[in-house]
Design brief:
By secondary structure, the chain is mainly α. It has two domains: about 140 residues, no CATH class; about 280 residues, no CATH class. The chain contains 19 helices and no strands. Helix 12 packs antiparallel against helix 14.
């Protein structure tokens, strides 16, 4: 029975592909027809029927190019484009709408029909669906553009610069002492941490101030939990009436570091993830649970507007500094491993964790692939995370109120102890 079905599909494949081309055109046509549904019949240049036929025409053009003449597709495409331009030009005499989005959508429909027949059904379907979504969300897209600030656009362009432009140009091989430095992999890690910070920034931007301290703490942890800890600590001395809600925000921000660590491991060294999962998850939960408990207890307390991010997380100077730090840690790690063995790695992790967890996490995760054992990498990452949270506990205690310092320090110490115990047992 399966062989009969397979033979049927093979024998009728061109017809089936043409059917898909027709349906993809109809999909875009439904969206276009919905937008123009209030116009009188004959005023619409292209609705569901036209788009469906244009998708079918694209599929037929692809078939003719493969069987009759290779000129069939370009000639039919140019004929469609010319006819569409004449129709759009005639419409301008009555409707002063200079947008060519509909024209581009019609030409794309023709191309999707051709792709469905001659290249790949999945690719054509994905393109048609994405096109329909973009066409359907005109007001939402324009609204986001109006809300976009200059430095945010600059950040997005810089992210593209360091990822799709610079990354492919770097050599993917070991260089330097012991060939421990791989420029491509180091820069790829820079892109990874920059992208996470970028997402965190816009999560705060889109969420708005009304979400309060918890929202701020959760998403500030994607970019700078240390900066948020310092900000909330100072705020606890200035605004006593909201003091009780600041500790949950700090604990959430510090706890968000642990999902980030698991993401790094999953992307860079998936084999390390099973060993890291238990200690890192427990450390995170031991911060999240007290945060939720404190929030529940004081949930009716006045909320505080989120601090506005004042620094662009994608400044190229910051990215270069982070890349240099990664390279330095990898060099020091190789040197300390040769000199002191595993003890050197742990010393490096503790020292690096005082300032930053991302750099040492990315370095140890990368080194676990070939230079150190997974157990050493896991314990080093846990040590770095524990030391980093101890530093933030110190900031909360030194710059915040006594109550805030106590509420932050106790869960931090408990999280540290549990993580180290589980890492040693792993």
């Amino acid at each position: 029975m399966d062989d009969v079905a397979s033979d049927f599909l093979i024998a009728h494949e061109p017809a089936l592909r043409l059917g898909v081309a027709l349906l993809l055109g109809a999909l875009i046509g439904i969206e276009r027809g919905w937008v123009a549904r209030e116009q009188e019949s004959g005023e619409r240049i292209a609705g569901i029927r036209t788009h469906a036929l244009v998708g079918l025409l694209g599929g037929i053009a692809a078939l003719l190019s493969g069987t009759v003449s290779e000129w069939a597709f370009p000639l039919i495409f140019l004929s469609l484009a010319g006819t569409s331009l004449v129709a759009w030009r005639a419409r301008l005499t009555r409707h002063h709408d200079y947008s060519i989005t509909g024209l581009v959508g019609l030409l794309l429909t023709f191309c999707f029909g051709a792709v469905a027949v001659a290249i790949d059904l999945a690719l054509a379907t994905a393109g048609a669906v994405i096109t329909a979504v973009i066409l359907d969300n005109k007001h939402e897209i324009h609204g986001l553009l109006n809300k976009l600030q200059a430095h945010e656009l600059d950040a997005g362009l810089k992210l593209l610069l360091i990822s799709v432009v610079m990354l492919p140009l770097l050599p993917d091989r070991g260089v330097g002492p012991g060939e421990v430095l791989n420029p491509y992999e180091i820069w790829w890690m820079v892109v990874l941490i920059a992208a996470i910070s970028f997402v965190g920034y816009f999560a705060m931007r889109v969420g708005g101030a009304e979400k309060g301290i918890l929202f701020t703490g959760l998403f500030a942890g994607l970019s700078s939990s240390t900066a948020l800890t310092l900000h909330f600590a100072r705020l606890s001395r200035q605004s006593r009436e909201v003091e009780a809600m600041l500790a949950p925000g700090i604990l959430l921000a510090c706890g968000t570091m642990f999902p980030r660590i698991l993401i790094y491991a999953a992307v860079i060294s998936p084999g390390l993830l099973p060993r890291l999962l238990l200690p890192i998850t427990v450390m995170g939960l031991m911060l999240y649970l007290p945060a939720m408990l404190l929030w529940y207890r004081h949930r009716h307390t006045l909320r505080v507007d989120r601090p506005t991010p004042v620094q662009n997380p994608l400044e190229l100077s910051t990215a270069l500094l982070f890349g240099g730090l990664l390279g330095l840690i990898m060099l020091l790690g190789e040197w300390l491993r040769d000199w002191l063995g595993e003890a050197g790695i742990y010393l490096l992790a503790a020292t690096s964790g005082m300032a930053d967890v991302d750099a040492i996490t990315l370095s140890l995760t990368r080194m676990s692939l070939e230079r150190i054992t997974p157990s050493t990498a896991v314990l080093g990452i846990v040590i770095a995370a524990a030391v980093n949270n101890l530093v933030k506990s110190g900031l909360a205690t030194a710059f915040g109120s006594r109550r805030l310092g106590k509420q932050v320090a106790l869960p931090m110490v408990a999280s540290l102890a549990a993580g180290l115990a589980l890492a040693l047992l792993a």
